[in-house]
Amino acid sequence: MSAAGIGARRRRRAGLTALLGLIALATVVPVLYVVSLSLRSRDDVLNGGLLPSQVFWRNWPDAFGAIDLGRYMANSWTVAAGSVVLTLLIAVPGAYFTARAGRSGGRLAALVLSSYSAPPVVAILPLFFLLRNLQLNNTVAGLALVDGLANVPVAIWLLDGFVRRVPREIEEAAWLDGLGAWAGLRRIVLPLIAPGVAAAALICFFLSYNEFLFALSFAQDSSAQTLPVALSLFQGDKNVEFGQQAVVSLVGIAPVYVLAVAAQRWLVAGLSSGAVK
Fold first, then answer.
1. Locate the ABC transmembrane type-1 domain: which residues (predicted)?
2. How far is residue 77's CA from residue 144's CA, in Å, rounded to a whole number?
3. Cα(124)–Cα(129) distance, rounded to whole angstroms?
C-alpha cells in the first residue's frame, strides 16, 4: 500500500476514534454531573455552575441516614427480577405463537403492541382494584406482577424476530421424532433463541428497575417502595435536597451499571442476532 493510502487510513481511524470519544463523553457527562451534585451543598447547587465551589461530603452520610437505602434497593431488585421471570413465562410462548401462527399470530402481535401504546396512567385504576382483590396492594409481589405484565408487549416484540429466524424444518423434524409443540419449544426453539431471551430479560429488568408510576401508585407503605420512589422523598414542599438525592441516584445506578457492563456481551449478541434476517 502506498504512503498516501496508509495516511488516509490513519486519518480515518483517528477521525473514528475522535467521534467515539465524543460519544462516550456525551454519555458520561450526566453521570459526572450527578457526582458533582453529590459533593455540593444546597446553596451551592442553587448558585449554578457545573463544579462544586467547595466539596461538601456531608451529603453522603446524611443520605444514608435519611432513608433505609438498603431496603429500597432490595425491593427494586426483587421487583425487577420477579417481573422478568413472569414476563418471560408469558412472552416466550406468546412470541412463539405470533411467529408461527400466520395471520392469527400477526393479529395477536398487533393487539399486544397496541396495548403498550396507551399511556400507563389509564391502567392505574383497574390495576389498583385487581391488586386489592388479590390482596397484593403495598407488596413487592404486587409490584412484580404489575411490572411483569406491563413488559410483556416489549418482550414479545423483541422475541418474535428471534423465533422467526429458527427454521421450521428443525421443528418439523422434532415432531417426526415424537416431540409435541410444547416440548419442541422447550427443547429445540428455546436453546436457539437463548441470546434473544437474555437480551429481552435484561431490557425488561432495566424497565422494571426504573419504573416509577406503578411503584408510587401501588406501594404507599415504605416496606414495599422501590428506589425511584425513595428518590422522590428528597423533594419537599419548599426545599429539595439535591445533594442527597444525587447520592442515592449514584448508589442506585452503580449496581445496574455493573450488571449492564457484565452482560454487555449477551445483550449486544442478542440484539444483533435478532437484527439479522
1. 73-263
2. 10
3. 9
Query: Average pLDDT for residues 114-132, to the nearest whole number?
Result: 86
Q: What is the DSSP letter of 123?
A: G
Q: Which three cell numbers stand for residue 135?
A: 390482596
Q: What gap in Å lies between CA 139 and CA 224, rounded to an integer? A: 5
Which one-letter DSSP state was computed for residue 240? B
pLDDT > 90 in the chain, percent: 31
What the block records as the C-alpha cell of 144 is 412484580
Q: Are 205 and 232 in contact (CB under 8 A)?
A: no
Burial per residue of 240-258, b for 16 or more beta-carbon CB atoms within 10 angstroms, e otherwise: ebbbbbbbbbbbbeeebee
**Over 90: is that where the pLDDT of 83 sits?**
yes
User: Is 63:128 a contact under the CB 8 Å cutoff?
Assistant: no
Cα–Cα dist 269/30, whole Å: 27
Supply the mean pLDDT for the chain: 85
pTM: 0.86
Greater model confidence, 7 or 173 = 173
Output DSSP code: residue 122: G
Q: Residue 275's pLDDT is what?
A: 45
d(CA 131, CA 217): 11
Q: What structural domains and CATH numbers belong to the chain?
A: 60-273 (1.10.3720.10)
**pLDDT band of 21, cuts 50, 70, 90:** confident
Q: Which of 85, 150, 153 is nearest to 114 (CA)?
A: 153
